[in-house]
Design brief:
By secondary structure, this protein is an alpha+beta fold. The protein is 28% helix and 29% strand. It has one domain. Strands 1-4-3-2 form a four-stranded mixed sheet, with helices on one face.
């Protein structure tokens, strides 16, 4: 079963962490030819202006290669 796991340090509200992950995915996978893939990006959410660092962990689950783990760190 495919899973998307979002780990936060508790300083970022869940809704902002989800919005940042969506922006990360959109930028990395839809604009790959323009900006290139990066495993870590600084993103500012549009709704509440949280600035966070989103990092995609390497895939280690052989049973579900499409699963992904995002680590969110609040910048300000």
């Amino acid at each position: 079963m495919t899973q998307i796991i979002i780990n936060t340090n508790g300083r970022t509200p869940n809704i902002d962490a989800m919005e940042a992950c969506i922006e990360f995915i959109t930028t990395n996978y839809l604009n790959r030819n323009v900006d290139g893939y990066k495993s870590k990006r600084i993103i500012t959410t549009k709704k509440r202006n949280f600035t966070v660092e989103v990092e995609e962990s390497p895939h280690t689950d052989k049973k579900s290669p499409c699963s992904v783990v995002f680590n969110i760190k609040a910048i300000r």
